[in-house]
Amino acid sequence: MTTPRTQRPLPETDRDAVLARLEQENAQLRQAIASHARVDQAIGVLIAVYKLSSAAGFGVLREVSQRTNVKLHTVADAVIGWTLGRHLPQRVAGELDAAVQRCRQRTGTGWWS
After folding, report:
1. Residues 6 or more apart from 49 whose CB is under 8 A from it?
2. For residue 61, which of 30, 38, 29 has the smallest C-alpha distance?
3. What is the pLDDT of residues 63-101, one digit of tens each?
4. Using one digit for the tens of pLDDT, what is the confidence trace for 9-39?
5. What span, in angstroms and rounded, lies between the C-alpha atoms of 98 and 68?
6. What are phi and psi of 67, to 5 degrees?
7. Which residue, among 80, 61, 57, 58, has the nearest Cα to 70 in the 3D structure?
8. Can you tell me the distance from the alpha carbon of 105 to that of 55, in angstroms, rounded to the nearest whole number?
9. What does each C-alpha distance from 12 to 15, 19, 54, 100 come to in angstroms?
């Protein structure tokens, strides 16, 4: 037979610390979700513009991020902005073209694929 588990109330200072930690964790999770959505949108742009698979689109974004030393979500924001008529930073634009070309060489695909 099991005995019921009752939680002991936390002292006020412990509750405040737990609440602060949970609020911080919640904010971090919200930021991660928003960042992930932007990356997914940018992958969609690369799929539409360059006719890449979703995996290849992510690989291109990741490669541009690594080669330019720019955070992935920042590269994604730049690609999304580009589709909205904003200027694509020259560093990102050059690496994006090069990464797409390298991807095509690795996969043996071209514009027609």
Report:
1. 83
2. 38
3. 999 999 999 999 999 999 999 999 999 999 999 999 999
4. 667 778 888 888 989 998 888 887 877 899 9
5. 12
6. -75, -25
7. 61
8. 15
9. 5, 10, 49, 56
